[in-house]
């Protein structure tokens, strides 16, 4: 399967996860998560599975073989998640870890995939007598991998003496806008909450042309991040429903179109009238197994003989994934770096110039996506329902 088709399938899975999380689990909360990193963890589980469990994982991840998944994951880890900060691009940190009960050892074939494809740290630990210490170890690992930015991937009580295996990941993204916002122009305005109340929050503004496109019942804004020395171009897209309470129906709309994000991209800059984007900072974590079960991925969490390819032991007959913990962080503020090179890679479509200015006032709940534009890979998705709530 070619990379583009694999990424398109992966984005379809991302949208499935996101719409379930946003509409069923946390419809009224600020959310940020990386569907891609959950995809990578599930791919890792698939690499240690067989039989019906493997079939169910492959079906859920919309792919035919674990080789396809491994190829996609290794390319994404090296291509998309390489840190770009040394060359002026976004700062990226992404890490996987596997913790295994010390009385068990990983099968050589599985360990090779863990080490080489997923670049995951594998650790032998004593779950039976030191479960709390192991949880602390996982949390310290995550904190170290993200330079102290992600703390407590595993909440208290997540690990106990019957745990045999943990998969965790930690990631962090920080990009500077290619055109920064002038801090002195940031002012407080009302943001309309879903319950009808209002809060005063700081909004950034700019009079420069912006990548905005209008559709029937929503608008899209693209805010490119400063590009480093490589070809990657990361952009935050803000999808703003026209209706103040339109977020829920908008989330339903994207769930019914697998290539929604690819089909709704603002390709050209337009003059803006009133232009207001709230500053926000979100840290969000959750345990993914319940959501995955509700979406039909049941067998990896059920026991049985599905995960026999992970460890060299008859215990492999009764292993199951106890939990998949995920935590993400995003911060949006005025920071950015202006550089002439930032617009060099943009190919515009010529079109009839329209003199009318477009307003883009994000003063009510909206969806956001951080995406790498060359490949179309969605790194983060989330929603802002109250920028005031950290």
Give an overview of the whole structure.
With 390 residues, this protein is of the alpha+beta class. It folds into 2 domains: 3-175 and 282-330, Antithrombin, Chain I, domain 2; 183-281 and 332-384, Alpha-1-antitrypsin, domain 1, CATH 2.30.39.10. It contains 9 helices and 16 strands. It has helices at 3-25, 35-47, 51-60, 66-79, 108-117, 127-145, 247-255, 260-263, 289-294; strands spanning 31-33, 91-101, 121-125, 165-174, 187-192, 198-204, 210-214, 218-224, 234-241, 269-270, 272-278, 280-287, 324-332, 358-361, 366-372, 377-384. It has a 7-stranded antiparallel sheet with strand order 1-16-15-9-8-7-10. Helix 5 (108-117) links the parallel strand 2 (91-101) and strand 3. The longest helix has 23 residues, at 3-25. The protein starts with a helix and ends in a 6-residue tail after the last strand. Residues 336-354 have low confidence and may be disordered.
Write the layout of secondary structure elements.
Elements: H1 3-25, E1 31-33, H2 35-47, H3 51-60, H4 66-79, E2 91-101, H5 108-117, E3 121-125, H6 127-145, E4 165-174, E5 187-192, E6 198-204, E7 210-214, E8 218-224, E9 234-241, H7 247-255, H8 260-263, E10 269-270, E11 272-278, E12 280-287, H9 289-294, E13 324-332, E14 358-361, E15 366-372, E16 377-384
Parallel strand pairs: 2-3, 4-13, 11-14
Antiparallel strand pairs: 1-16, 2-4, 5-6, 6-11, 7-8, 7-10, 8-9, 9-15, 12-13, 15-16
Family: Belongs to the serpin family.
Keywords: Protease inhibitor, Serine protease inhibitor
Domain Serpin: 16-387
